[in-house]
Design a protein that fits this description.
single chain; alpha/beta; 13 helices; 8 strands
Length: 308
């Protein structure tokens, strides 16, 4: 299977240099990355709002090695929030953050990440929006959930992400499916060992449905992160059985993937949020998008061949 190979390559500096220099890379990166700067991504937010869509914005970048870089990541989000405030777009855009960007893996990283993310959550709340903490590899999750719990004491709307392929997630979902919680469920896009995660796609899909059922039957606000038509249909049926109104859950899909489906779901009255990444440090995010779906890799390969 190519997925694990691509995920391994996402950590390789040699592959980073090769992919970055490949002639067709920019064409494909532009499909998944909305721009490099705040000024470039704001029109994307405005266009989404005009189409009845909402967004969650991710400033890409994960390889943080110093506290100064972590502080710079914090400041990038604060700059984004200031732009959204000035344009009155706060209610149309939330933020997604990876705590690795805020220094989680450094010495004293748990406290550092909490200290860096808190002002971002505060600033988001001040303009009428919120922040969702993205899930990363399984070794980071206890810290992420602890930070999520701490932030929710003052900002209960703070969301988090759970990954269906991890064995632990069914228990996490039962704990998180409480009143006021906001939980995004995704399949998972990191290379995880068989000791902690399902490796078979069918098993991951089954786990996804079980976890989604828990969230739909709970008292929180489920956010369905999937492009899979079958899982989207199942989510709609589970919502109906749970007696949920259309504004009591939402769908989330990635910028650049199944854009017609974004519009279709919004036209049916569903809340549809587009996960929109931007920034210059796009490599890790980009490689996980290739690993998730063979069609993405084929598209990339064709681009290199036609541009080479």
């Amino acid at each position: 299977m190519l997925g694990p190979v691509i995920l391994a390559a996402s950590r390789s500096d040699k592959m980073r240099r090769f992919i970055s220099a490949a002639p067709g890379t920019k064409q494909v990166v532009d499909r998944f990355i909305a721009g490099e700067t705040v000024d470039q991504v704001v029109p994307v937010v405005e266009d989404a709002a005009d189409k009845g869509l909402e967004v969650t914005l991710d400033v890409v970048g994960e390889d943080i090695t110093t506290p100064e870089q972590a502080a710079a990541a914090r400041d990038a989000y604060l700059e984004l929030i200031e732009h959204l405030k000035a344009l009155g777009l706060g209610t149309k855009a939330e933020m997604s953050v990876k705590l690795s960007m805020f220094g989680q893996s450094l010495d004293g990283g748990h406290e550092l990440a909490l200290a860096n993310v808190r002002p971002v959550v505060e600033a988001a709340a001040a303009i009428g929006t919120t922040v969702t903490l993205d899930a990363e590899d399984h070794t980071t999750l206890d810290s992420m959930f602890a930070i999520h719990e701490e932030l929710r004491k003052d900002f209960p709307q703070t969301g988090c992400v759970i990954q269906a392929y991890l064995f632990r997630t069914e228990e996490d979902a039962r704990r998180l499916a409480a009143a006021g919680s906001r939980v995004r469920i995704v399949k998972g896009a990191y290379k995880e060992p068989a000791s902690v995660a399902y490796q078979d796609k069918a098993e991951i899909d089954k786990a996804y449905v079980r976890i989604l059922k828990t969230l739909m039957e709970g008292e929180g606000y489920p956010m369905i992160g999937s492009h899979d038509p079958r899982l989207i249909a199942i989510a709609q049926e589970l919502a109906r059985k749970a007696g949920r109104k259309l504004d009591e859950y939402e769908f989330q899909m990635l910028y650049g993937i199944r854009s017609d489906e974004h519009i279709r779901l919004a036209a049916e009255g569903h809340r549809m949020r587009v996960y929109t990444a931007y920034g210059t440090d796009w490599y890790g995010y980009f490689m996980r998008r290739l690993a998730e779906k063979p069609a993405n890799l084929l598209f990339f390969g064709r681009s290199i061949l036609t541009k080479g």
